[in-house]
């Protein structure tokens, strides 16, 4: 028994020895070594970059309830916030509502800077002088003055101007108005001399003059007998006075009302007077469905996204920014096809394409006169802030080139066919 056990043991040992010495020769192939790494039960590493946060102050002359100017900024703020979030940038907004164009604006800029805002946006023309008092004391904060002109060349690196070529949208709105008036003439509803536009303007500044001139030229391109009367109210946002001005214009025979003012009252007044209307900053069909044809507005989200993203990435951005339909910074609201002239939508598309490709210049000098003569020369820049352009030639290649040299409009000419009923500086 003991010998048998010993034999078995020796046989087993020999087998193990042969297996251990086996190489590439022989008919049998050994099983491959197990090279599988042990399972990693730890959580995967998070390679996602943390979101960047930018604190932005916004100083507003009104609030979202105006359904016009400030509401349009709120819309831009919300759209930019959503677009930036998709890029991993979070925006913390601090908004100051109903700030006057006075020392209260200076206080608002100081408060926002002290609260740690990286960027402060001032949304009204009259805010800039007060903003510029504060900006030198906070060189680490970027300050933006919308619709203004002094900040881009004031010697400060942290101040900026921004506007959009809203005259392009004004011209298109004028096309809609002109088509409606020409349709009324063709239908025998009015005579050609009754094609009179009433325009409610805030101030007799270049920004407003440029806008209503573009609107008039758009209307006249469709209705050659068009004339215009302008009533200034001396305020960017005064709903009562805007409505009163619109009523007075209707009483003077204006059958079409438009506006460069902040509220919806010109549109609602036009409807109450049996006139038509083209608005600004917001779609006004909901408040004046029988009068409102279309509106144009600046899409501020385009600029907000650009500037805030630059700040988030520690990059510089333009001190003077201006774009229009080329970047979607100027848009049209829905056309009220229930009351618009037949074929308006198609004509709008045609004219917008012409503006895009440069075959149509809004201020083509062959389409208007000043005191009976064609415009051949006009200076563009207002370098001393007196509302009088004093350098750079704006007329070339057969057109006045608005906002070519700076974002702030500088078309401040009174052309034939437009009557100023008053002025307000």
Structure report:
The chain is α/β, with parallel strands linked by helices and 425 residues long. Helix content is 33%, strand content 19%. It is built from 10 helices and 17 strands. The protein has helices at residues 2-21, 69-85, 103-114, 128-134, 166-186, 206-222, 239-251, 265-272, 301-312, 344-357; strands spanning 52-59, 89-96, 119-122, 142-146, 159-164, 196-201, 227-232, 256-260, 276-280, 292-298, 320-323, 330-332, 379-381, 391-393, 395-396, 399-400, 418-420. A 7-stranded mixed beta sheet has the order 12-10-9-8-6-7-17, with helices on both faces. Strands 2-1-3-4-5-11 form a 6-stranded parallel beta sheet, with helices on both faces. Helix 2 (69-85) crosses helix 9 (301-312). It is globular and about 65 Å long.
Ranges where pLDDT stays below 50 over 5 or more residues in a row are 1-39
Return the average pLDDT rounded to an integer: 90
Class based on secondary structure composition and strand pairing:
alpha/beta
Instruction: Output the helix-strand order.
Output: HEHEHEHEEHEHEHEHEEHEEHEEEEE
How many helix segments? 10
Key traits:
alpha/beta, 425 residues, seven-stranded mixed beta sheet, 33% helix, globular, disordered N terminus, 10 helices, 19% strand
């Amino acid at each position: 028994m003991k010998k048998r056990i010993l034999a078995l043991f020796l046989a087993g040992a020999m087998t193990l020895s042969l297996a251990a010495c086996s190489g590439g020769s022989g008919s049998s192939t050994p099983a491959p070594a197990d090279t599988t790494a042990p399972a990693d039960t730890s959580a995967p590493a998070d390679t996602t970059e943390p979101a960047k946060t930018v604190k932005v102050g916004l100083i507003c002359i009104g609030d979202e309830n105006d359904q016009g100017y400030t509401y349009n900024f709120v819309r831009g703020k919300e759209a930019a916030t959503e677009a930036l979030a998709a890029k991993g940038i979070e925006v913390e907004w601090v908004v100051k509502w109903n700030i006057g164009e006075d020392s209260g604006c200076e206080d608002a800029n100081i408060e926002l800077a002290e609260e740690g805002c990286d960027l402060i946006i001032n949304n009204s023309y009259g805010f800039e002088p007060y903003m510029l008092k504060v900006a030198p004391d906070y060189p680490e904060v970027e300050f933006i003055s919308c619709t203004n002109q002094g900040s881009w060349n004031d010697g400060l690196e942290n101040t900026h101007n921004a506007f959009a070529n809203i005259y392009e949208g004004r011209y298109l709105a004028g096309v809609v108005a002109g088509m409606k008036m020409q349709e009324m003439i063709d239908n025998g509803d009015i005579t050609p001399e009754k094609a009179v536009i009433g325009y409610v303007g805030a101030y007799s500044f270049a920004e407003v003059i440029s806008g209503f001139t573009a609107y008039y030229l758009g209307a006249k391109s469709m209705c050659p007998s068009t004339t215009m009367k302008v009533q200034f109210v001396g305020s960017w946002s005064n709903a009562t006075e805007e409505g009163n001005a619109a009523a007075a214009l209707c009483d003077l025979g204006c059958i079409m009302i438009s506006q460069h003012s902040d509220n919806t009252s010109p549109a609602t007044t036009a409807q109450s007077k049996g006139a038509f209307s083209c608005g600004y900053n917001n779609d006004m069909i909901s408040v004046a469905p029988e009068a409102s044809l279309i509106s144009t507005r600046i899409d501020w989200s385009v600029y907000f996204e650009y500037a805030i993203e630059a700040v988030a990435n520690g990059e510089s951005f333009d001190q003077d920014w201006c774009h229009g339909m080329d970047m979607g910074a100027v848009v049209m609201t829905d056309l009220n096809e229930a009351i618009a002239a037949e074929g308006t939508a198609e004509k709008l598309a045609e004219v917008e394409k012409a503006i895009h490709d440069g075959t149509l210049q809004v201020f083509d000098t062959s389409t208007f006169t000043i005191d009976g003569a064609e415009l051949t020369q006009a200076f563009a820049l207002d370098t001393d802030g007196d509302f009088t352009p004093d350098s750079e030639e704006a007329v070339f290649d057969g057109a006045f080139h608005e906002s070519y040299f700076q974002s702030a409009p500088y078309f401040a000419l009174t052309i034939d066919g437009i009557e100023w009923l008053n002025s307000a500086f």
